[in-house]
């Protein structure tokens, strides 16, 4: 917390006597500044404006510029798109529903919904500070693959996913015979 004083003839300084960055914009919500009276309060420095002004000034000839260290871009942290995340979750749920062999109809509907949400999530990631492009693409892939495989299962072209097989029960029975300690009686 830096306190500053200001008068009409003095530059803005912090409470320690150091001058505020000359390229910074100091924002003070007080009428006394306009009247020219001394002000003591908190200084809020607009760092984006200060950086813009520093970059706009030309570098004098003969000045050595250090390019070995990359400059970090400061800004809001990216957030993941909700549509992209929901698309991935629904795509996995649709694939698992299809793999049961008992739910190809609901799997197709869930897969189509996951693909649509994935396209929405993909378009949302084009905005700044919105992440989740990979989630959206995986959701679209799982959704469309489930729709295609489910449609083939319903038409009978893919008999491994028809209603007569229950792979979840078969996998549980196999695990119970191989690892009996996993399923105590």
Set down the secondary structure blueprint.
Elements: E1 3-5, E2 13-14, E3 25-27, H1 32-35, E4 41-42, E5 44-46, H2 47-56, E6 79-80, H3 82-99, H4 104-124, E7 130-131, H5 133-155, H6 167-178
Parallel strand pairs: 6-7
Antiparallel strand pairs: 1-2, 1-4, 3-5
Helix content: 40-55%
Write down the overall geometry: elongated
Task: Give the helix/strand class.
Answer: mainly alpha
> Unreliable runs, pLDDT <50, ≥5 residues?
1-8
- Count up the helices: 6
Distance between the termini: 65 Å
Q: What strand line-up does the widest sheet have?
A: 2-1-4
**Number of separate strands:** 7
The figure for the number of domains is 2
- Quaternary form: single chain
Q: Major beta sheet, specifics?
A: 3 strands, antiparallel
Helix-strand sequence: EEEHEEHEHHEHH
- Work out the strand percent: 5-15%
Rg (CA only) = 31 Å
Mean pLDDT metric:
77
Describe what this molecule looks like in 3D:
The chain has 185 residues and is mostly helical. It has two domains: 53 residues, no CATH class; 104 residues, no CATH class. The chain is built from six helices and seven strands; from the N terminus they run E-E-E-H-E-E-H-E-H-H-E-H-H. Strand 1 and strand 2 form a beta hairpin. Helix 3 packs parallel to helix 5 and helix 4 packs antiparallel against helix 5. The radius of gyration is 31 Å and the shape is elongated. It starts with a strand and ends in a 7-residue tail after the last helix. The N terminus is likely disordered.
